[in-house]
Amino acid sequence: PRTIRLADYRLPDFLIDAVDLAFDLREDGATVTSRLTMRRNPATSDPAAPLVLDGQDLKLTGIALDGEALGANRYTVDAEHLTVTDLPGVFTLDITTEIAPQQNTTMQGLYTSGGNFCTQCEAEGFRHITYYLDRPDILARYTTTIVADKAKYPVLLSNGNPVETTDLGGGRHRAKWEDPFPKPSYLFALVAGDLVAVEDSFTTRSGRDIALKIFTRRGDHTKVDHAMRALKASMAWDEQVYGFEYDLDLFMIVAVSDFNMGAMENKGLNIFNTALVLASRETATDGDFQRVESVVAHEYFHNWTGNRITCRDWFQLSLKEGLTVFRDQEFSGDMNSRPVQRITDVRRLRAIQFPEDGGPIAHPIRPESYIEINNFYTPTVYEKGAEVIRMIHTLIGPERYRKGMDLYVARHDGQAATCENFVAAMEDASGTDLKLFRRWYSQAGTPEIVVEDSWDDAAGRYSLTLRQSTGPTPGQPDKQPLHIPFALGLLDAQGRDLPVRLAGEAAPAAGTRVLSLTAAEQRFDFDGLAARPVPSLFRGFSAPIKLAPQPRDRLAFLFAHDSDPFNRWEAGQQLATQLLLEGVAARKAGQDWRLDAEFVAAIGRLLDDPALDAAFIAEATALPGESFLADQMRVIDVEGIHAVREAARLAVATALRDRLLAVYRANDDHGPFDVSAAAVGKRALKNAALSYLGLLRDDAEATALVLAQARGAQTMTDVLAALTVLRDRDIPERAQVLQDFYDRWQDEPLVIDKWFALQATSSLPGTLDAIRALTRHPAFTLRNPNRARALISSLAMGNPLHFHAADGAGYAFLADQVLALNAANPQLAARILVPLGRWQRHDPGRQAAMQAQLDRILAAPDLSRDVYEIAAKSRA
Ligand code: HT7
Ligand code: ZN
């Protein structure tokens, strides 16, 4: 397969000013007629170039130039293009194609879901609808006419504003839509179906009324209140924080149950995976509610960062995605507990991006090449991309960041821009030199930082020496130093913040100070100190780095005292990591090991600290996860990590049993349901206590509590927390409780996804056999991405113990599923395959077993580009 390179970017030879699309939707297919109003690009280097349009899986049935049918000698068609020669400077091209949405299982282009028509055009889906210059730097005005059966498809939607609906007689009707904003083809959308709308409105700061509509299948409309609230909150937040006002008169969201990703920001017509728009107390957890809120915000925020200013090419994807993730994270921080939001975001980065950055598919946030662009919607482009924007925000401060955004919009509104354009705007508006900072865009890998300190008592001077290095990644053996924001606090012996005064400066106020680390090694001297301070390093996770282990007494002190909540949590996690890894080493050496009693006592003190937020306590008292621990080991000890972590959890539960029970009761709120930060925090803390108590196998009271909550709780958060305990308990009640849950929720697909995921993440022996059996369950299908992910990715990403079973059975199972999906849904197949590529830090037996499955995949006939790229890079 061909590799596409950033270095090969060329301006388009032609421009498209207007696109008039007409869709005739039928049960046996669809006819698409497209009129393209085009001209040669005055900036092209080849004024005689032929027109090469992209198109795949299309049947061309008509082509006319300026109204005249085109002779066969003027054009050629191959599997991926329609080429037209001898074109004038300005012209219209009429193209008719036949497509088969009902047969389209790839979920790219026009396809059907639950009997309704919908589209997914990012990144290159539009070429599956009609021949087009399917690249993001071609911006055109669209009109869309849809004709369909009126009874089957009463709702006909596209981008922009509705201009006309007509009953055509004979049971058919027509709707016409017009989008006044020029847009790239990846933002095109069409929906036709039997849907119901929940309607609301939003008045913008300039006084315009915007109609808001959320469309779902009948019955699901009762679950969109939260999404609608989130939408209105996002609209208000974007006006207040960024000055961005919505531009059309109508904003629509459509929920579809077959969708490869979370949601899509099509202009004026967002299309959402049902999992990210529907939420009710009975069917969704608090985590689901928060994800709905953040994804609704994310897609809405794209209207400015992505749609009004789009990407010049797909290598610039992080321009819209990293920036928009940063924006949605900040929005969620304002809507919920800010420290817990940061903890959640960093956990996610470490869980999914750090392993990617240290593995075979590591790439910079602006990649330099790809085979299949769908493979580059990655945690690096999204989550690390957001950290890069956050670092700019941290370095220049919120006011100058806002000036930078204003300048970026003033310069590039209505254009297809680059990451370089964004950084230049930030640099120009802030007056800060970001030359070195730009390396974050081109260099892959997670920097590692070692810090040494020293104290000069006579001079009252404290010094920190920082060393940064980034390991080799594929194609980048040698790394350069990065510009790293270093947020620092210095604490006195009582845990109070001291002024962070660089030698020679006047005293600043006490608190966090942001310094710049720009060299491979750099020393910072701090004056005006009466005694050696305790440093709180990289507060708020001011950069996506790995910090070398710090002394335990320092971590214990920060865990008890740091005024920066993120670093307080972090100190506990780092301390626990050191202790648990010591346990893993001891187990391997056949030695006894017990969790440090002082650490258990520190958790006990946190549990009922009235000064702390409940949600924060829940986070701070949880031990680091198995995957995080694995990521800290040179050679991963799969069983050792699981055994030691479970032993440590049991030690906490045993020692703190009565306090945990008291915390459980104090936070067991039976008042009216809401998803305020306070209510969510109480449920999180109650269920954190339950997850410890549930480990006490011989404790009848604890077990009864778990069973009662599993059977009788009123919220999905509570039910699932109890089921998660039972998932790992081999007790007679387990099977019945799971069956009852299935019976109750069998008509709610999103809840049944949870049922599959729950069983796929069990630590009990025989889990892989249970998963194999579940693939034969009548409710299981690989064709629905949510269902496939619920069973398969939950095993591969959420159950290290069984996925990495020493006999390699987990790997073989995953490879089977990848091959089964390869043809039908290559994008999904490639995504679920990724964990098989993480063999580098496993023992030789597991390495060989993982490689054997990659070889098996690579040897399969008719491998899709998507699967080939991930498998080949993973095997290299
Ligand atoms: N911008 C959207 C990306 C997306 C996507 C990409 C490839 C194939 C299917 C897809 N569905 C959505 C989502 C977002 O980041 O907002
Ligand atoms: Zn996005």
TrEMBL record:
* Boundaries of every Peptidase M1 membrane alanine aminopeptidase domain copy: 227-440
> What catalytic reaction does the record list?
Release of an N-terminal amino acid, Xaa-|-Yaa- from a peptide, amide or arylamide. Xaa is preferably Ala, but may be most amino acids including Pro (slow action). When a terminal hydrophobic residue is followed by a prolyl residue, the two may be released as an intact Xaa-Pro dipeptide
Which NCBIfam families would you find in this protein's record?
pepN_proteo
- Organism source for this protein? Inquilinus ginsengisoli
Every copy of the Aminopeptidase N-like N-terminal domain together lies at 84-187
InterPro entries, sorted? Aminopeptidase_N-like_N (IPR045357), Aminopeptidase_N-like_N_sf (IPR042097), PepN_Ig-like_sf (IPR038438), Peptidase_M1 (IPR001930), Peptidase_M1_dom (IPR014782), Peptidase_M1_pepN (IPR012779), Peptidase_M1_pepN_C (IPR024601), Peptidase_M1_pepN_C_sf (IPR037144)
State the name under which the record lists this protein: Aminopeptidase N
Query: Which protein family is named in the record?
Result: Belongs to the peptidase M1 family.
Name a Pfam family for this protein: Peptidase_M1_N
Instruction: State the Gene Ontology terms under molecular function.
Output: alanyl aminopeptidase activity
Peptidase M1 alanyl aminopeptidase Ig-like fold domain location is 445-548
Recorded superkingdom: Bacteria
**Cofactor(s) required, per the database record:** Zn(2+)
The EC designation for this entry is 3.4.11.2
Residue ranges occupied by any Peptidase M1 alanyl aminopeptidase C-terminal domain in the UniProt entry: 553-874
Q: Which UniProt keywords apply?
A: Aminopeptidase, Hydrolase, Metal-binding, Metalloprotease, Protease, Zinc
The answer, when asked if Protease is one of the entry's keywords, is: yes
Keyword Zinc attached: yes
